[in-house]
Design brief:
259 residues; alpha/beta; Rossmann fold; 2 domains; six-stranded mixed β-sheet; four-stranded antiparallel β-sheet; globular; binds adenosine-5'-diphosphate; binds magnesium ion
Length: 259
Amino acid sequence: MARIEISSLAKVYPGPKPVNALDHVSLDVAEGEFIALLGPSGCGKSTLLNILAGFESKTEGEVRFDGQPVGKAGPDRGVVFQEAALFPWLTVFDNVTFGPRMQGVAKPVYEKIAHDMLALVGLRDFAHAYPSQLSGGMRQRVGIARVLVMKPRALLMDEPFGALDAQTRLSMQELLLEVWQRLKTTVVFVTHDIDEAVLLADRVCIMSARPARIARQINIDLPRPRSIDDLTTPAFIRYKAEIMQVMRDAHPAKAIAAE
Ligand SMILES: Nc1ncnc2c1ncn2[C@@H]1O[C@H](COP(=O)(O)OP(=O)(O)O)[C@@H](O)[C@H]1O
Ligand SMILES: [Mg+2]
């Protein structure tokens, strides 16, 4: 499991009107820690995640994974987006084993881990189904299993449940809590949803308006294992109120309206 060190990371998208997206962000994520990056749309969350993933270049600063400068995208970092881009012509099992097959992993090895991961995400009985036969939540489960078979040292998730209906989102949050409880992978989870951030994370990093800085970090000392029942506890509501206040200060309505 990876330790991630981000120091003074800046990003300007070049162009006729350069966009200043990140303003010298520094953040350390401990091995096995689950952190949430929280902020409204357009504040720079995906930019930060894409730099961690190796999809996007940085303008200044440094990102290290276990002490090594982060390179281009690789299987050590599993990335999950809002939509799982599955191969529609492959079964669930073949989608999930695609990565290890391409890497030349031996068949008995990848078959075992694929079965384990499909069981972990509750899709044991759907190994031979095609993506078109699955609901949105199930497709996202395949997306998670597909990343987990690569045994990533960190999971980078960009609003992975943002396109799901409220009920499905809750069950996916519980699923992710279970997966993390079991695998203890380092997770960086991007969301604009306060409930989601508090429920899942050990630490919530609230981002400022663009160009993004970390406006405030709040440790979430709710006991684990957690479940969606925690959403209504007094301790949970206190965290939520505190974060809403920080969000209000960091993102005044006037500034948002002017976007
Ligand atoms: N490839 C790009 N080129 C130019 N500007 C971009 C690009 N990607 C994102 N931006 C801009 O950078 C800012 C931050 O975007 P993003 O990181 O996607 O925010 P978030 O994920 O928080 O919604 C936005 O103003 C967005 O328009
Ligand atoms: Mg985004």
